[in-house]
Amino acid sequence: MNEQTKDFLNTLSGILLRCWMFGFALLLFWFFVLQGMRTFVHYLHGSLFGVSDHELDVIFYCGMGLVKIGVLTFFFIPWLSIKLMLRKSL
């Protein structure tokens, strides 16, 4: 593996790591907003869409699960693969 390829992969791994961290920061923000302002969020979305509190909880937590799977699949696993490949090439 030449030096230019290693530099590219190091840059890409840095981008993927930042995307992974921002994705999990978004998830933490989402979680804390739901926990801290649960009544307001349920009032706002429940009145707009006519769904119950339980249905909103299911929608929000399924959405959080999908975002978590997406962040892990598209950012963390490629970052880990690149890091392992770079370590092996040393």
UniProtKB/TrEMBL annotation:
<feature type="transmembrane region" description="Helical">
    <location>
        <begin position="58"/>
        <end position="80"/>
    </location>
</feature>
<dbReference type="InterPro" id="IPR049220">
    <property type="entry name" value="DUF6868"/>
</dbReference>
<keyword id="KW-1133">Transmembrane helix</keyword>
<keyword id="KW-0812">Transmembrane</keyword>
<feature type="transmembrane region" description="Helical">
    <location>
        <begin position="12"/>
        <end position="33"/>
    </location>
</feature>
<protein>
    <recommendedName>
        <fullName>DUF6868 domain-containing protein</fullName>
    </recommendedName>
</protein>
<dbReference type="Pfam" id="PF21742">
    <property type="entry name" value="DUF6868"/>
</dbReference>
<keyword id="KW-0472">Membrane</keyword>
<feature type="domain" description="DUF6868">
    <location>
        <begin position="10"/>
        <end position="85"/>
    </location>
</feature>
